[in-house]
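Example 3.2
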Amino acid sequence: MPANASIPLSTEHGDRWAAMEARYWEGVFQRAAERLERSRELLETVVAEYREARYSWFEAIAAADLVRTLRESGDQPQAEAVDEELSEHNAHYRRVHGRDGATVPPEHE
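Structure, written as tokens:
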């Protein structure tokens, strides 16, 4: 099932976790397809959802992808703001491989 189809399906059945995961992967897929505005929308939403649910490790991973999307779309100031905020408030974020842009993280498999 495509990730974009599983978001409403998971939500409809009350599986918040599955909906967040589907939204995250759809955001990653949209970035890979160079649909950066849609990717940004999805990743901003899922970062907020993970934060609200107190899933700090998953928030860190999604935020790293959000920062990457922001950089690719040319919104460097927003990318730096998100990076700075997460660096200060989420200890897991500092340990996410490649989040600083100095190294390219391996593609998701």
